[in-house]
Amino acid sequence: MLALGLAGAWLADRSGRTSRLLPDLALVALGQVIVSTISVAADISYWNMLLMGVVLSLAVVVPFVISRFVFGDRVIRFPWRTGHRWSPVQWSYLVLIAVLGWLILPFYFITSGVYTNWPTVTLPDEIARLFVGVNAVGIWDELFFVCTVFALLRRHFPVWQANLLQSIVFVSFLWELGYQSWGPLLTIPFALLQGYTFTLTKSLSFVITVHLLFDLVVFLVIVYAHTGVPPIFLLAPP
């Protein structure tokens, strides 16, 4: 599928209908190929976390380096600071995300049984590794899918099309990670909202904060579904 997509981009560039679509899609494909070299299933063993950390980092770093130093582009950027304080609307949005996550995520994880895609954690060391893993992947999601894939696609497509395309890649990764069953009904809107939020705020720090807040609830729900702790959710654990 990647090869066919790149072939289509080459034909579009050659016909003059697009300009430099192939190099940009090649960077997206390169990141995907790097990720595909490992399993992204939830495995919090020390070795797998190290391996996954290295591979996912390369999936962001390699396209960035090629874009910046080989192609001479600055399209892939990581705008952590915008020079503007978050507005009351942004702070309210964070509260809304936390409340929606608290209400929806327990129902999704427990009724679908997908919490079993993550290991049972009872020891402090295991809980800490799960916490680090969930949040590290959440940060990577925004660096790759929004700051890399979405940014590259926006050069060639209207924002809504580029956002839809990046959400497909985003949700495909989340499916492999464990958000299965009817999970895409949640992850597709989330991916679209993250792309749209980044377009409005141009703030990587804000979209990462949104994601980490959501992932904090994910972490708590996974532990709760396995152990019944912490008892802060409305739905009883299985």
TrEMBL record:
A GO molecular-function annotation: metallopeptidase activity
Pfam families per UniProt: Rce1-like (PF02517)
Any one GO biological process: proteolysis
InterPro entries: Rce1/LyrA-like_dom
Domain CAAX prenyl protease 2/Lysostaphin resistance protein A-like positions: 127-217
TM regions (residue ranges): 21-41, 47-71, 91-110, 130-152, 203-225
Taxonomy, superkingdom: Bacteria
Keywords of the record: Hydrolase, Membrane, Metalloprotease, Protease, Transmembrane, Transmembrane helix
Record-given protein name: CPBP family intramembrane metalloprotease
Species the sequence originates in: Agromyces albus
Lineage: Bacteria, Bacillati, Actinomycetota, Actinomycetes, Micrococcales
